[in-house]
Amino acid sequence: MDKSTKDRILDEALILFAENGYRGSNLRDLAARLGLSKSALYKHYDSKEAIWNALLDRMEAYYAQRFGSAEHLPETPDSCEALVQLTLGMTGFTISDPQVILTRKLLLTEQFHDDRVRALATKHFLEGTAGIFTHLFADMMDRGVLRRDDPAMLAFAYTAPITALVHLSDREPDRKAEIMERIGAFAARFAAEHAAQKG
């Protein structure tokens, strides 16, 4: 099915804003990239700010559906091995999906100029991901998979190094396989160190 013009506009806007920043982008260039006139663009969005806000809404929904969020939690792993696999799946998605890569670039550059973007960057780079794992770790402790600890502190200790490696993959995409291997090794070691004692 063909994408709607509105979706095409947001797809191209994401690329343009990630390349040039919000302030360095203009609707004339966006229209030209789409093969539209500015007036045709205005039939769908009445301003650059309207495109920006629609793009941020779409980015947030896309990431929440595919990666997870407080409202869309992944299934709780029933073993340490399942935790490693879940982590690799989530990380593989976030360092390979072109839309998520562009979104991360946009959030990194625009967080210093826009309050909403700053809040989204904090959510996606720190608090949101740690919040997902806080919930998962609490459930895993209740189920006897992980030993009792402060789930929020444990989630922070788990997600911060992984997030750092995700950002490294953005700067050095040719190291993606190595980075995934390092994340897998880290996740396995972390899970083993915090596994509940059996018997």
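That was protein one. Protein two is written in the same sequence-then-structure order:
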Amino acid sequence: MWLTSSSIGRKVVMSVTGACLVLFLTFHMLMNLVYVYDVIVGTPAGGHYYDKVCEFLGTNWYALLGTAGLALLVVIHFIYAFILTFQNWKARGNDRYAISGKQPVHWAAKNMLVLGIIVICGILIHLYNFWSNMMLAELAGSEGQFAATAGFDWITYTLADPVLFVLYIIWFAALWFHLTHGIWSSMQTLGWNGKTWLNRWICISYIWATVIFCGFFLVLVTAVIERGGFHSICG
């Protein structure tokens, strides 16, 4: 099958899975802004709208199906990314970024593998801090520091830790660089490769990546403010 056996097919798979992941990141960012809204308006404990969102997206069949689908997309995207990167290295060696024209090669394009590894590490940290304490805990019928659906408390407690705060910023920065190149590159692979469309998608990529970064960063800062400053979750 050409989607798995050819270089172009693999790039198409990467582009489609990447586009789906960008849409999920956008949804996840917008969902987390509900937490910011709760803090700004001073929603009373027990009535947080973010907790209601977490309850709705708890362990319902569609949430479990969506989680499994998302996990599959992440695995496919990064497996294909590693395959294409190593094929590129093998084919071109030290000249893999040589170009015949005057258009420069973006820094993000040269370092997509490193950025991808940082993104994967960030995903694992996020899963450990939130998914394992919320969805997994609800499935297992266990309870940690807070109830599995107490998303507001989990964000406030977790993201106000100074070490995690820095790690999340590094993760968000890697995501920003990854997205600024990945979005327009995906669109180019899928056919929007004319000069006019390419320039438009490059502009859209930077705007989209910046909006996602700022949204997540706002959640981090809001958690610290809501907590009343930094604290260590280990002590």
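Residues 95-102 have pLDDT under 50 and may be disordered. Keep this in mind for the problem set.
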